[in-house]
Amino acid sequence: MLKLKKLVKTYRTGDQALKAIDLEMPEGQVLALIGPSGAGKSTLIRCINRLVEPTSGEVWLDDLELTHLKASGLRRARREMGMIFQEYALVERLTVMENVLSGRLGYVGFWRSLTRRYPQSDVDEAFRLLDRVGLLAMADKRADELSGGQRQRVGICRALIQNPKLLLVDEPTASLDPKTSRQIMRLICELCAERGLAAIINIHDVALAQMFVQRVVGLRFGAIEFDGPPEALTPDVLTTIYGEEDWEATIKKVDDDGNEIEAAE
Amino acid sequence: MSTELEAVLGKQWKRPHFVTNPALRWGLTIGFIAYLIAAYMTIEINWSRVYEGLDRGAQFVLAFMTPDFVSRASDIWSGLLESIIMTVAASVVGILISIPIGLGAARNIAPLPVYMICRGIVAISRALQEIIVAILLVAIFGFGPLAGFLTLSFATIGFLSKLLAEDIESMDRSQAEAVRASGARWMQWINYGVQPQVMPRLVGLSIYRLDINFRESAILGLVGAGGIGATLNTAFDRYEYDTAAAILILIIVIVMALEYISGIVRARVQ
Amino acid sequence: MPVKQQNGTAIWRRRTTKQSLMHWAMWLIGTAIFVYCWQQISNATTWFFVWDAPRIAGDIWTRATPPRWEYITQLGRPIWDTLNIATLGTIIALFLAVPVAFLAARNTTPSRFFIRPIALLIIVSTRSINSLIWALLLIAIIGPGVFAGVIAIAIRSIGFCAKLLYEAIEEIDAVQVEAITATGASRWQVMAYGIVPQIMPAFAGIAVFRWDINIRESTVLGLVGAGGIGLQLSASLNVLAWPQVSLILLVILAAVVISEWVSAKVRGAII
């Protein structure tokens, strides 16, 4: 469904963030992208929906090539890809409901969005999603009144109301505490399963990634170093991705399926 | 499906209003529109005069393309120099006076009587505008740059003392307390505990005030308090737009230069 | 850290010798400039008048008190005009300042090398020139009256508002804008949803702040003939009607205090 061909991103400073990435994802797969900071995880995600312009290469979403789209075509393509951000990236001075509805901006005209007159179907869907993540009562609160976990739920609603084929998730748990992190990851994966969505989750918590996803891709210096199921992540593999360190502890948690952490909560 | 969800499905959604009380909201809106209409009605606009003026306006804009620095060069030069002199002298004196007043107007380091007096001085200086002060001072001290110098010094005191006092009031208490705990006397305490914290901002504000003082000095001449304003006024009176344009360009260039310098200085002290 | 060796013991100094020499040289130059400026002012001053000043000040004071209270009946209309000049001028300025600010902000300008310098030039030139000078110019062009005052205030305020606003735009959280862009929103929708809500508080604050300043400025615009209470001030000064002058000054003072109070209240309500 998503296919990256020889995707290259070279920043103007000369840093090569992505070196000819080839990646293919089938429908409905949840993929975790791991790697050290600066490995190009964020860049890769942002090159797919062209928040960052790739230098060369191709991005195929089904039968559509994205890197050569003009402005209006790109907008239509972006509607198909929901994005969830590290610091939630809600528009803090808008209400929760406005934030969720902003996911429909690609579908409604400028005046309708300016006067907040969204189609009834969109409004109902927004309420359903808010109910699904347990925030219905918060609909008319301003986004900056919410806690971190609640904000991230609103961010998820905003991405899902786009009715996307693919979710691009950038460090969804980086600013959350361990318990909320796990809840959010679970929620994302559940929703993907419910809707048959594919997702690329960019995450630095290896244990958390292993717990929830079907496939892990390891990135180092802008190149793919590992691609396989979570069980195949051995200390040797982690050393090639992150460098020398004692990895037993990180993986052990996962072998126990995180029971000790769960018990500690 | 939860009952709360059923209750809202199919209902229209409206963004909550900024003013929640509808009577107050409509009252404010209607009141504001009524005011605008009333205000517009009472302004007498002589459209034919405005129309005629467009010609002169165009002339003035064209004069900016061909400013005349030459024919009144000596007037412009002496006026500008006087403005700069007033600005520099008034800024120096104003800053020197506003430091003790700023210290006195900070509640966390000054005793109450001193605080009240200093706040009073600040309030008076801020409430009176430069041009009105200038009129009074010209009446008292006679025409010339002395009145302008005093006006700008007075205005600088109000501006700088207030901001300095606010800065001192919001400073980090623990740093100042650490110095006090070492047994420092009051002057030493100010010098070591307070000054390092507020100095960068004081320098930045001083340069900003220098900039304001220069701009203000350009109008003091209108009421006879010295500076470039008198020359400018004469140029307008004689419809010498090219000379006026030259003066305005000089003012803009100097203000730009001051802003540029202040940017550099602020970056260096911080 | 400069540490000097003297008689075998290390002595700590705040600055090196070269630094402290530079330091003193700077102070010397600064002092010399100030002394020169003061001499120039002193040369241009008739000191006889200055020594006479306390007597003149006392003289003015006795003439100006008590204020001529009954004159206040004639001040209603000028105060109304003053309020209108400030309010309408601010509104016009805000309408013009918004596009200028968007063109000037690094993150929203359509062209950094062509349009942004023009917007910055508009900002600096309208800001550098006092509203009284703009009033002088407009009176020469469109004749004296309230209208010239409104336009003068409006022009002077464009640069001020646009500068503060474009700084606010440059400080917005780029990730929020990115999030809206990622939904497939159009350029205008990104502006309405991603940028405008973030700068709204700054905008409201700037509007009220500038309105407060404009009330002050419009009280004196009449001195050059641009309407408002300054006209009465200038007329009274011309005929040396000091009791009227003192009343007008009291009224101006009251207007300034009230406008400052109102703007503080409104800003408190918004933020």
From TrEMBL, chain A:
Which of UniProt's keywords are assigned here?
ATP-binding, Cell inner membrane, Cell membrane, Membrane, Nucleotide-binding, Translocase, Transport
Has UniProt tagged this entry with the keyword Translocase?
yes
Name any one GO molecular function: ATP binding
SUPFAM superfamilies per UniProt? P-loop containing nucleoside triphosphate hydrolases
Annotated ABC transporter domain residues: 2-246
Domain of life per record: Bacteria
Q: Where are the annotated coiled coils located?
A: none
Quote the InterPro entries the UniProt record gives.
Answer: AAA+_ATPase, ABC_transporter-like_ATP-bd, ABC_transporter-like_CS, ABC_transpr_PhnC, MetN_ABC_transporter-like, P-loop_NTPase
Q: What is this protein called?
A: Phosphonate ABC transporter ATP-binding protein
Instruction: Cite the Pfam families for this sequence.
Output: ABC_tran
UniProt cross-references to CDD domains, sorted A to Z:
ABC_PhnC_transporter
Could you say which residues form the signal peptide?
none
Which organism is this protein's natural source?
A: Litoreibacter arenae DSM 19593
Q: Name one GO cellular component term.
A: membrane
Automatic annotation (TrEMBL), chain B:
Keywords for the protein's UniProt record, in alphabetical order: Cell membrane, Membrane, Transmembrane, Transmembrane helix, Transport
GO cellular component: a single term? plasma membrane
Q: Where in the cell is it found?
A: Cell membrane
Record-linked SUPFAM superfamilies:
MetI-like
Kindly list the residue ranges recorded as spanning the membrane: 23-43, 84-105, 242-261
Positions of the ABC transmembrane type-1 domain: 80-262
Which molecular function GO terms apply here? ABC-type phosphonate transporter activity
Membrane topology category? Multi-pass membrane protein
Q: What is its main location?
A: membrane
What does the sequence similarity comment in the record state about its family?
Belongs to the binding-protein-dependent transport system permease family.
Name of the molecule in the record: Phosphonate ABC transporter permease protein phnE2
What species is this protein from?
Answer: Litoreibacter arenae DSM 19593
Q: Source taxonomy lineage?
A: Bacteria, Pseudomonadati, Pseudomonadota, Alphaproteobacteria, Rhodobacterales
TrEMBL record, chain C:
Q: Which CDD domains match?
A: TM_PBP2
Q: What is its main location?
A: membrane
Task: Please list the GO terms describing molecular function.
Answer: ABC-type phosphonate transporter activity
Which segments constitute the ABC transmembrane type-1 domain? 79-263
Keyword set includes Transport: yes
Question: Where is it located?
Answer: Cell membrane
Record key words, sorted: Cell membrane, Membrane, Transmembrane, Transmembrane helix, Transport
UniProt keyword Transport, yes or no: yes
Q: InterPro entries given for it?
A: MetI-like (IPR000515), MetI-like_sf (IPR035906), PhnE/PtxC (IPR005769)
Positions of transmembrane segments? 21-41, 85-105, 132-155, 190-209, 221-241, 247-264
Which Pfam families does the record match to this protein? BPD_transp_1 (PF00528)
Membrane topology is: Multi-pass membrane protein
Q: NCBIfam families recorded for this chain?
A: PhnE (TIGR01097)
Would you identify the family this protein belongs to, as annotated? Belongs to the binding-protein-dependent transport system permease family.
**The name this protein goes by in its record:** Phosphonate ABC transporter permease protein phnE1
Q: Whose protein is this, by species?
A: Litoreibacter arenae DSM 19593
Q: What is the lineage of its organism?
A: Bacteria, Pseudomonadati, Pseudomonadota, Alphaproteobacteria, Rhodobacterales
